[in-house]
Design goal:
Number of helices: 24
Structural class: alpha+beta
Shape: globular
Number of domains: 6
Radius of gyration: 29 Å
CATH architecture of the largest domain: 2-Layer Sandwich
CATH topology of the largest domain: D-amino Acid Aminotransferase, Chain A, domain 1
Helix content: 25-40%
Strand order of the largest sheet: 2-11-10-3-9
Length: about 675
């Protein structure tokens, strides 16, 4: 290895660190994702060839290292204390009065408030600007060493990144909350459900589970984030207030919560609490209250701490998002794809100001894992728009009168035998004529993921079914304005609006129509693959398993489900009626795309779709796909763990796209 290689690696680290800071902290990137990926992959390749180049602050730690055998213990520099709680303006007022009486200052006290994240508290230790140790809170004195896992989180600086002439402290301890953004949490649970895996109960559990993975590479695949809330300067500090501390952390390269604010009076604190309570469900992270701290550090020192909590801070909690109640019975609901979901009927209880009477139990495995029985006393929770769920059974409350929950062997609606496929937690009804499945399919067909017929949301579809106006999808297209205007709550105007929307829905694109049919294993990407392959609805509906499985990106399960669907007599009857109603599904059109002159090569693993699906997407737009690198290749799509093809492509000057660039190119992002 020569000096030029080492200098290049150092330059790459600085350049990547700068662009990461702009992207994750400042939210102001100045290069495209593909350019960033090119720099990152070059550094990965150099460190692989010359392992001695890898430093503690290398951005390549973000992808995770080899699995650990176990977590070691870490003693915190100072104890990580808890917070005392208040639950009303009166209780906070009493707390503030105690502080005021003790301090006896002549000026009004100032408070810094911040959202109380429902995440996982961690401690980060920086020596000479470098992250050396990261740990969990543990028991407050000793935590677990999860440095490798924390290094995969992009909003945690591996090296302090000072702005202008800000001095980097020789020793700094930063404490904060690791959380799972709600949007990414929902995406993760959808993927786990599709893969037949158990879902996480809430974002906090998902964050904790992700950080406690012995394999940091698993953590790296989860979109965790971090907000700091405290700093301990073990050397000299120029900060004298909480407000200055947050400014200092921002100047050192941390992303701080933009909702942190300074309140000049108790009245301001009360108003800020009301604001947080109002916006909590619109935030992309879970909060369960607000943390209030004295702004002045010297006043904090005068107040001191108890054995478990500071006397100068308090958590003002929101009304309980959890409550205790009793399971009175369990029903079993059947979804669009036949999945049978157990639902608990509860003794009514108020949670976050809402009366809760039902809660999901997810599946049979969850019931067994929680040892749940009818008449059990349980803890239930509700968070935002998530339906209530049973968190745990209070075993100490059992009286002996509890009854086992018997999962049905037959569909509770149509009586067909239920099945559970190998490797899946789901139990399904496979009867295509099951009324429960049919109504969910009707809702899906008319909804956002289907033809998106304005005015035909879930409640209106259910009303149409209850009035015997709709029983299968073709019935939507035989509805009249007179029929709709006579329904309770409907009038001429709303009926006309729905009829117009139905008329517009009669000419869908082939891919959109196939997706709207709600065939199991057939989502947006597969529907587009089918549309491109068959070209017309007429060709699609005479396909068989052999036809389907030869399409790149269509697996055996999807091919089987497609064959069952298209060969069903009821499907043929439905399509005949749709034709009679005037539906004209538009043939697939090969777009005159700029991709028609491009040649793609794929390497590495894509996270949001399979390589075969990705190949078919560019083929649909006229591009060619090859399996080896040559002078013909114009674009290389690099997923996770891209290999030697990436380095070779870069040397040849071939355009390199990361997964985000690729999805934008083909119109999927």
């Amino acid at each position: 290895m020569n000096n030029k290689v080492a200098q290049r690696a150092e330059w790459l680290r600085r350049e990547i660190q700068d662009h990461s800071h702009r992207y994750y902290v400042l939210d102001a990137p100045i290069i495209a994702d593909g350019e960033y990926d090119t720099l990152f992959q070059e550094l990965l390749a150099l460190e692989k060839q010359y392992p001695e180049l890898r430093t503690l602050d290398s951005p390549t730690h973000r992808v995770g290292g080899p699995p650990l055998e176990e977590f070691n213990s870490v003693e915190h520099k100072q104890p990580m204390l808890s917070l005392d709680n208040v639950f009303s303006a009166e209780e906070f007022g009493a707390f503030a009065d105690r502080v005021d009486r003790y301090l006896k200052v002549s000026t009004p006290l100032q408070w810094v408030v911040e959202p109380k994240l429902d995440g996982l508290a961690v401690e980060l230790v920086y020596e000479n600007g470098m992250l050396t140790v990261g740990s969990t809170r543990g028991d407050g004195v000793v935590g677990e060493n999860i440095t490798a896992q924390l290094k995969t989180i992009h909003t945690i600086p591996l090296q302090l990144y000072p702005i202008s002439d800000v001095r980097v402290p020789s020793s700094l301890v930063v404490r904060g909350e690791v959380y799972f953004p709600k949007q990414d949490f929902r995406r993760l649970n959808r993927l786990r459900e599709e893969n037949g895996e158990a879902v996480f109960a809430n974002p906090r559990n998902a964050a904790a589970g992700s950080l406690r993975q012995l394999d940091p590479r698993v953590t790296a695949q989860r979109s965790l984030a971090f907000f700091p809330y405290a700093a301990i300067y073990l050397g000299e500090s120029t900060c004298s207030t909480q407000e200055e501390m947050f400014a200092s952390l921002r100047n050192l390269g941390f992303r701080t919560n933009p909702l942190v604010s300074l309140c000049a009076s108790m009245h301001d604190v009360v108003e800020q609490y009301a604001h947080f309570h109002e916006i909590r469900h619109s935030l992309d992270y879970e909060i369960d209250g607000m943390v209030i701290k004295l702004n002045d550090f010297s006043l904090q020192d005068r107040m001191g701490n108890t054995a478990r909590a500071p006397r100068w801070a308090v958590a003002w909690k929101f009304p309980a998002a959890q409550a205790t109640t009793v399971v009175e019975k369990v029903d079993f609901q059947v979804g669009r794809t036949g999945v049978v979901t157990p639902v608990a009927w509860l003794r009514p209880v108020t949670v976050e100001g809402v009366v809760v009477q039902r809660a999901t139990l997810h599946n049979r495995d969850e019931i067994e894992r929680k040892q749940l029985k009818v008449y059990d006393t349980v803890l239930v929770q509700r968070a935002g728009d998530v339906i209530p769920e049973v968190v745990q059974v209070i075993l100490e409350k059992r009286s002996g009168a509890e009854e086992d929950i018997i999962f049905p062997e037959y569909c509770p609606v149509c009586g067909s035998a239920l099945i559970q496929r190998n490797g899946e937690v789901a139990v399904r009804c496979v009867n295509s004529a099951c009324p429960a499945k049919q109504i969910q399919q009707l809702i899906y067909f008319a909804g956002k993921n289907g033809l998106d017929i304005d005015g035909l949301g879930k409640k209106n579809v259910e009303k149409l079914v209850a009035e015997n106006l709709v029983a299968e999808i073709a019935d939507f297209f035989f509805l009249s304005q007179d029929q709709l205007s006579q329904l309770d709550g409907w009038g001429e105007k709303s009926a006309r609006k729905v009829i117009d929307a139905i008329e517009r829905a009669k000419t869908p694109k082939l891919g959109t129509f196939i997706r709207a049919l709600g065939i199991r294993h057939v989502g947006e990407v597969t529907a587009e693959l089918l549309a491109a392959h068959f070209g017309t609805l007429e060709a699609f509906i005479i396909g068989n398993k052999e036809d389907f499985i030869q399409i790149e990106g269509v697996g055996e399960q999807a091919a089987e489900a497609l064959e069952v669907f298209v060969q069903s007599p009821s499907t043929k009857e439905t399509f005949d009626r749709l034709h009679l109603a005037g539906m004209q599904v538009q043939p697939f059109e090969q777009s005159e795309s700029p991709l028609s002159q491009r040649v793609f090569l794929f390497t590495g693993t894509l996270l949001s779709l399979s390589r075969n699906e990705a190949k078919q997407l560019v083929k649909n737009q006229g591009a060619q796909v090859v399996s080896s690198l040559s002078g013909r290749v114009t674009d290389l799509v690099a997923g996770e763990k891209a290999g030697s093809k990436l380095t070779a492509a870069r040397e040849k000057g071939i355009t390199v796209l990361d997964e985000g660039d690729f999805l934008r190119l083909v119109g999927k992002k």
